[in-house]
Amino acid sequence: MPMINVLKEFLATKGVETAYQFHKKTGLPQATAYRLYNKRNVYPDQKTQEIVCRVFDAQPGDFLRYEPDSAEESAKHDTQQSTSTVSNLKSTPFSADDESPGLMTEAA
Questions:
Q1: Which helix H or strand E contains 65, and what residues bound it?
Q2: Rg of the chain over all Cα atoms, to the nearest angstrom
Q3: How far is Cα 102 from Cα 5, in angstroms, rounded to an integer?
Q4: Where would you tag: which of 4, 20, 47, 58 has the fewest CB atoms within 10 A of its CB?
Q5: How does pLDDT run across 2-53, given as a tens digit for each residue?
Q6: Closest listed residue to residue 3, CA positions, set 34, 48, 40
């Protein structure tokens, strides 16, 4: 679940302690307000985000947070590691003076 709804925590900083208070302040349907307030995996649609932003003088990033899944994070780390290894190989200069045993060079 990469996107997390942190609306409840955000609203607490604004003095809103219940889903009912959230519903009353925003005018959102009660079911919508309760669902957004209580479920971290439910995300507000664009219209609802605009209402929350307007009422609480906020930005969407104040009540939505991105957290990569551990599997995504692991894959990202593996990709970065292999890219780093390739970059290191490309950036290592090689000259004819660097001949090592068993390494054959051909003239073009």
A1: strand 64-66
A2: 26
A3: 59
A4: 47
A5: 899 999 999 999 999 999 999 999 999 999 999 999 999 999 999 999 999 9
A6: 40
What are the tokens at 62?
């104040």
Cα atoms in the 13 Å half-sphere on the side-chain side of 105? 10
Around 10, how many Cα atoms within 13 Å sit in the side-chain half-sphere? 22
Tokens representing residue 24 in the block: 């009353």
**What span, in angstroms and rounded, lies between the C-alpha atoms of 11 and 77?**
34
- As to burial, measured by CB atoms within 10 angstroms (0-12 exposed, 13-18 middle, 19+ buried), residue 92 is exposed
Position 12 scores a pLDDT of: 97
Asked if the model's pLDDT at residue 107 lies above 70, the reply is no
